[in-house]
Amino acid sequence: MKIDTFDLTKDGTFIIAEVSANHNGDYAIAKEMIKAAYDAGADAVKLQTYTADTMTLDVKNEYFMIDQGTIWDGKNLYDLYKEAYTPWEWQPKLKEYADELGIILFSSPFDKTSVDFLEDMNVAAYKIASFEITDIPLIRYVASKQKPVIISTGIASLEDIEEAVKTCKESGNDEIILLQCTSAYPAPLEDANLLTIQDLAERFGVIAGFSDHTLGITAPVTAVALGAKVIEKHFILDRAMGGVDSEFSLNIDEFKEMVKAVRETEKLMGKATYEMTPKKLKSREFSRSIFISQDIKKGEPFTEKNLKIVRPNYGLAPKYIDKVLGKIADKDYTKGTPLTSLPKEDKR
């Protein structure tokens, strides 16, 4: 599967810098974030395409007040989304800038109008946010565009995930990526359940990854070690700037460190192999072998006093020691030389 020019089967982990609301309503900051994400080594930046009116109703009763134990408790939904949204008129310009830099830019749509808007921008993929996984009409419409669909599973039951995957496939779209996710902001490490990543991949036959809301970089790096092919992490220029998502976002240096650690983890993972590489063969010189530990004259027996298993490995392997002890030397041997062959049978 490819997202733009990135091949998820051979190009490593697809690392997404989530811009979200961390531009704080400033276009210059949004543009600077894209450059910083590119410099930090991200493969993509992700926006969110909505307005307050496409997300909720402008109503102030108790149904629309946040009271979920989050950093946004006490806020009204409409007011929060009005504060956090990314102006649509910015997004085509930000996409052009990302294209110039060589970093992929795509977005999370939240209704059909935003999908149509993003289609006009020719984004390479779509992201379904955790809280939209039950919006089957939206998923069906997104999947119908026949582009990769990345779906976060933060609030999903197994049945929700099954229905979302089924909806994509019924639309003729098998390019599905499921992200393990914990919809808490920030998310406790003990709620990450990273072993779910491999289960998602195996259970649904899809590419799996991790959308991370924990603090720090331990969780995403561990996720890669456990098979995540996509990592999404919120990104900010500087947490001191504040903003609705600042508390659980990585700053520039932290994001760079995460990318570095992910790339190192990819190298560490390698492949299951028992190949005797040139390096491995060279290193075997420091293993043990049978050496002559005292001078031996022809006709004398090999004993535990005149033979020793020591480093380095230029003689017979240690497993042959029992085949040598008690045998008669067929020639003279000098201390410090390796025994390189089994002694010939004594014909006397």
**Fraction of residues in helix:** 25-40%
Question: Which CATH architecture of the largest domain would you pick?
Answer: Alpha-Beta Barrel
Tell me the distance between the termini.
Answer: 73 Å
Q: What's the order of the H and E elements?
A: EEEHEHHHEHEHEHEHEHEHHEEH
Largest sheet: 8 strands, parallel
The CATH superfamily of the largest domain is known as Aldolase class I
Mean pLDDT: 94
Structural Rg: 30 Å
Instruction: Indicate the CATH topology of the largest domain.
Output: TIM Barrel
Q: Assess the beta-strand content as a share of residues.
A: 15-25%
Total count of domains:
2
Q: What shape does the CA trace take? A: elongated
**DSSP summary, beta strand count:** 12
Specify the number of helices: 12
Question: Residue ranges: pLDDT <50 for 5 or more in a row?
Answer: none
CATH class of the largest domain: Alpha Beta
Structural class: alpha/beta
